[in-house]
Amino acid sequence: MSTSRYLTVSALTKYIKRKFDADPHLSGVYIKGEISNLKQPSSGHIYFTLKDQKTRISAVMFSSAAGSLKFKPENGMEILLQADVSVFESSGQYQLYVKKMEPDGVGALYLAYEQLKEKLQKEGLFDRNRKRTLPPYPENIGVITSPSGAVIKDIMTTAQRRYPIASIRLYPSSVQGEKAVPSILEALDKAAGDSSLDLLIIGRGGGSIEELWAFNDERIARKIASFPVPVISAVGHETDVTIADFAADLRAPTPTAAAEIAVPHIEEVRERIMSMEVRAHRAVSQQLQNKKQQLKKQTDSIVFRKPEKMIEPHAQNLDRLNERLYRESAMIIQKAEIKRERIHERLIRLNPVNQIERKKNNLERLMDRLENTTAKKVNSGRQRFIQATASLEALSPLKIMNRGYSLVFNESNELIKSSSQVENGDKIKVSLQTADLICSVDKKVERDQDGEN
Q1: pLDDT in tens, 93-132
Q2: Sheet holding 199-204, edge to edge
Q3: Is there a common fold for 9-106 and 135-264?
Q4: CA distance 345 to 337
Q5: What percent of the chain stands above pLDDT 70?
Q6: 229 with 114: CB under 8 angstroms?
Q7: I want to staple 408 with a disulfide (CB 3.0 to 4.6 A). Which of 8, 215, 361, 416 is the partner?
Q8: Looking at domain 135-264, does it have CATH number 3.40.50.10550?
Q9: Where are the domains of the chain?
Q10: Which residues contact 260 (CB under 8 A, 6 or more apart)?
Q11: With contact defined as beta carbons under 8 Å apart, do 221 and 124 qualify?
């Protein structure tokens, strides 16, 4: 069976797409519905699903068309859009290619205005506590507006009439159209660089919301809020309120009213100065009168009339104090003298020379006592030695030997005191006064107690 009659998926999808694109009823279609599944990638394209109670369809708005939106699309928002209906070939799905979009029932500009207002309000950009007080007497006032419009003329005329000493400096800017926003931003930068400015007025005449839209720009609002000096916003008429009005330190209903708010009236200043002069004169006079009364009170006091009365008690008290000082000083000196003498005596006692002299005398006395005691001890010992020597000599066996006695020893050199210590034939030694005799015992003859054999 031949397959040439079969179409590919791509061929069929391209055919259907050409049919969609060629159908004039599917080009520039006006559709309304609710946004869901909203996606906004960094490419700037917007992808979402448009739905009603029964049906839904995919939609895309490319960045070239999305860049002109004045509001921010959100899920659940009812919108009106103009789009082409075509087929996305990759998925074979038909979808809407959106060219224009606006909120259903609310204008796109108004919605964008409300969205930005809510955003900046949440950031605290409109808080009252960050609003600055206007200077009471500004010398240099900057004005950002169109150089050819009636605004600058009204401001200058009003300011010169009310406060001619103020200087008005115009920073020209476009206030309407596509160039308005960059022109206003440039003028704000120039004005911020002028350090002599005391106040800034920014504004334009009335108009539709489209004509005033430049003053609803987020960048302009932030620059106004961070401006170095207070800012008065005077955009449109009294019923026109822009984001710039909320960001400024003060809103004026008209440019003329802004000039009236910015500067005081010269006559009011004169009256204020005159009032201040009167008050200053009255205050000085009152102060002068008070000082005169104080001076009179002081001059009438006893201090000025009889100054000696103030001095005499102090002089008497001074004498008592001097007397007491002298008495107590003398006592202190006396005590110090006694203490000094005691210390002197103690130093004398503790003087090393005196101590050495005393120790030397004590040593000499001790030496004398030692010599006397030693001599006595020696003499006493000598006497005892002589007596002992005499006793020894008297008791010495040698002395006895001089009288004819002798000592007999055995062979062991033991003194023989009894006959039982020797036997016949024993060798004995007989010690005389001058010599020893070696003998032998021939016979031992015993004696009785009476000495008989």
Answers
A1: 999 999 988 887 655 667 778 888 888 989 999 898 989 9
A2: 167-172, 140-145, 199-204, 231-235, 250-251
A3: no
A4: 12
A5: 92
A6: no
A7: 416
A8: yes
A9: 9-106, 135-264, 401-440
A10: 158, 162, 252
A11: no
Q: Which residue has the tokens 């038909």?
A: 94
Q: Which architecture does CATH list for 9-106?
A: Beta Barrel (2.40)
Say how far apart CA 223 and CA 200 lie, in whole Å. 12
The string of pLDDT tens digits covering residues 116-174 is 888 898 999 989 898 999 999 999 999 999 998 888 999 999 999 999 989 999 999 99
Give the span between the Cα atoms of 262 and 428, in whole angstroms.
166
